[in-house]
Amino acid sequence: MWGTPGASVRSIRPYRSSEQYLYAMKEDLAEWLKELYELDIEVGTFLEVLETGAVLCSHANNVTHVAGEFARACPGVARHLHLPTAGVTCNPTAQPGTFQARDNVSNFIQWCRKEMDIKDVLMFETEDLVLRKNEKNFVLCLLELARRAARFGMRAPTLVQMEEEIEEELRQELDLPPTDTPLPRTPRKPRDLHNLDQMVQHLVSRCTCPVQFPMIKISEGKYRVGDSDTLIFVRILREHVMVRVGGGWDTLEHYLDKHDPCRCTSLSHKQALKTRSPQQQVQHEVRLCPASKAATRGQPQPALLVSRSQSPLPPVTWGSRVPRSPATPLPEGSGHPPGTSPHQEPAQPQRVPSGR
Q: How far is it, in rounded angstroms, from Cα 265 to Cα 259?
């Protein structure tokens, strides 16, 4: 059951906020499938139970059966809905990771696209479930399937029931006329907002800004956040505080991490530190010129190794070029400049200290 009688602020699960909303949705879907088909499924075994595709195909056939009964009972309403008319072939004995399991999952995906008209943006691929490549897309697809099936009388998860409740509340506030084709509604579980204010205040109190990030209660389950007029709907889903965001859901903790100024800064800073690659060390070799070839013949040439990190070099300041004075012409019959001797020793190379 989704109610949380006697729940306290300590019941909020200590998951990372970016993963908590996905955990909450899997928990809701697992309980929904458990009630529908009496499966031995929990949030910890959610993917293991569904990875063979047998339960998914069985669910698709059940949705098609419910849609057929609805079309016979309410033909006028059924004409305005996209109802599935064909089922799915399934291999119930498929083992995880086998080609039979992949065929089951692939058949379910094709059924969702063709019979339920689920858009590609909400679909998943076979590898997303079998190889766990994209767990999020798989969960979102199941939730969208539940929304569409609830239109013709299929029992819906708690999240979908809360969505319908919020839509009705908005319709009443805006004084909108009822829909032309009223859809059947499955019995809903009573909502529990007893501890909602306390749990919201606990999450908002983590703000460390000089002026606390505002979150003002407007009515039961509705709050104004920030300095704008943005209104959000907040609900309790078991041990999670959920926020209705666009066409989906998010946890209040993750929502605040993206909107509270002090949490946004700390979150981006942590991600920057996490994604920053370690600096690689490179070596530059600087060789010293010998004073005389005869003095160093047969001896190893000295070398100076300078180690530095691969960091951006400081900018180079460019100056104007100073023009040289015109060269003095050489005296006739002389191959050397004035003041020099033809037998002068070559100048010793100067050692220039390295800039690093």
A: 10
